[in-house]
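Risk register update: the risk of archive-format incompatibility is retired. Evidence:
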Amino acid sequence: MKKLFLTIIIFGLLFLISSYLEAAISYRSSKVFFEGKQLLVAKPDSQGRYSQASPFIIKGVTWSPETAAPDFGPNPICPNETVEYGFFFDWAGRIPQGHEIFVYWKERQFVKHYLTDVPLMRKMNLNTVRVYSSFGDDFREGRKVLDELFDNGIMIIMNVAMSKVDIDNQKYLKVVEAYKDHPAILFWAIGNEWNLDYNKYWGYETVEAAAQATNQVAKAIKQVDPDHPVTSVLGDRFSDCDFEDSVSHILDICLEIDVWGFNVYRGKSFRDFFSQVESLTERPFYISEFGTDSFRTTKFKVVDEHQADNCKGWEHEALQAKFVLGLWREIESNLSGIHSDKQCLGGLVHEFNDSLWKVGSYHVGLGGLVDYYSEERSSFRTYNTEGFYLPGGHPDDVANEEYFGIVNAERKPKEIFFKLQEYYAKLK
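Archived output:
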């Protein structure tokens, strides 16, 4: 009896050790590196064995799972308390301020939606998502999101800093440390369009100061994790005549950035974009945002030069799909994964789901602060057609911000979903 008892204990311990080792092995990071201008990825299986490294083409979408904002939600300072959500504006006496509530809410939407969103992404045959924030402070929950992505064959470009505040408090280092061994990580990303005026250069006074900070963040990330490339995303500002604000100057400063992302909205063609980038750098790059919305605007009023109000029209899913596929074919002819002398790694269509919180939001700049009891109060949880006036950038010259999704707010696929599903399956 004693021998049997000891045998059971030994086998139990061996089982626990085996389970632990298997879990540890399953969390080995993928091998992500460059050979010439090509991105190569080798993924581990559950036994820790790596697949053969092969050229990787970024076939993806941007992913911000938040859709309709609630009226109330947890207080970021004291989660057991409830505070007003809605438009997330800042105003005197609001504690915490609206932007702080927004960041808290946004980060936690991944955990809420990933079990619905990721299987849809897999059906669409994409292999990469780009996010604009991490998954909150609960890294165990964050790893569940990464697990689901990897189990569905999807890599992630993980943004770890989106503001000067994120840089100053070095939160990004905690995120990198928490996830650096996860096989779903493709790149660490720093910021989004921080070279554009509207973004106020991360909170820095000049583009050059923001670039210096970006370079230092990249350097610090590499000290924690030397095994993953670091990227940063710029807005399309190639025509800037001010040298200190130019893309060329930024690229000269940010030597720690391994690969660049560019958000590009030039209409039905990228025009000379690829040659512009290749004339400035030999580093690889990808198109971090491109596409258009599914709302066909036929009538609108321009306010404050760039805001399109009182937009009238209808949803035109076929036009959105045709527009995006035309742009993808241009990307395909410039892919390093197919043409080894090219520098482009791929592209990410903007965006996965419709975002109903945007119009009237302080963070997007569409509409102003509305009265609590006004009829517009509910606009953060319903569709609104307002957008940005961008002549030549979209089929109707208007970016209707709440209609960019490949699926709608209820996760019903639009026509573009099925067109990309077919296209991504063939693109290898």
